[in-house]
Structure formats: structure tokens, C-alpha cells
Amino acid sequence: MTDTHAHLDFLEAEELAQVLKEDLKALRALLTLGVDPSRWERTLNLAQGKVYAAVGLHPTAAHLLSPEVEEALAHYARHPRVRAIGETGLDYYWTPETRSLQLRALEVQGALAEALDLPLVLHVRSKDGQAEEDLAAWLLVHRPKKAVLHAFSAHPALERAGLEVGAYFSFAGPLTYRKNAHLREALARLPEDRLLVETDTPYLP
């Protein structure tokens, strides 16, 4: 099994040691994601053995985008242990005021992923489903060759768009919550070869 989405750089030393010494024994590989410029170096330092890296600008950090950050991201993205770009996407739940910046950051990272032939890891969250609708529309326009819908929420428009462009759908711990029957229903109807699993550690139980 591969954990396709984790944030090892956020773990305390004791927790990190547990993951690296014990938890990894049960995994084929783990992808740890550095989500802003201050975390890229540490993320790459952790990418050893079974651990691989992704680098990107989380939508809540889209305000950090600048020519210098774009250049640095393009540099780190070429590291031999990097396997994906992201996570990027749209988050109107925490930072609705930066929608235009988030879209710009998404476009920059989407173009970088295409140029390097790497998967694009996509985050999306909103209170009213608008971010999901907007990301679905973005997918249908830009049609990335390799996209991963991280912590898939089973939003209908996003599911349709994801299937149309051949995206992967990644599920985490909330799949098991009693209240989330809609996630289990989505899991059952999606193509088996489009499914991924993740922990999103340390953010999801």
C-alpha cells in the first residue's frame, strides 16, 4: 500500500521517528507534501528510502506567490525525489478573500506539472460547494494529464469532471465515519483503477 498524501514535516520529532522507523514497514511508499516555500527544503530532506516528495503552494498560501517563489518552486520540483506538484487547488473555506490569487497559483502549478510530466495534487474546500464547482470547471478547461483529487469529497460536479479528464480520486480516514455514507457510495461507483488511499497525517485521524 502507498500513502499518497502526508505531511511529515508537520510532525513532532517523536511522531516522525515512529513513522520512519515503524509505520513505513507496512507501506510500499509514502508521499510527503511541502505546501509552502518555508517547507520545501525540509520536505525534500525527508524524502529518503520509501519516502518521496511533492512540492507546491497550498491555496491558503497563494498570497505568497511571486516570480521568485515560482522560480524556487520550479527548481525544487526538479529534485530527483519529487513525484508530484502540490498540493494546490481552491480553498474558499479558510481563505475566500484570495480566490483570484488561488486561481493564479493553481494555473502556475498546473503548467509546471504538465511541463515536468508530474501529477498535480488538488485540494478543494468550501462551505457552499462553489470551490468544488470552480475546480471542476478548471479541470474541464485545462485537462491536466495527471491529476489527483486529494481527500475526495464526492461532490457531483467534481466527480464528473474528474472522470472526464481521467483523474485519480484519493480517500482518507473520513471514508470510515458513520455519517459519510456518500463517500462510501462514491468509492463503490468509481473505477477501481482510479482510486488512491491517503492518511493526510497529521491533519486527518
Automatic annotation (TrEMBL):
The keyword Hydrolase applies. It comes from the Bacteria. A divalent metal cation 1 binds at H5, H7, E87, D200. Keywords: Hydrolase, Metal-binding. GO terms for molecular function: hydrolase activity, acting on ester bonds; metal ion binding. This is Hydrolase TatD. One of its GO terms (cellular component) is cytosol.
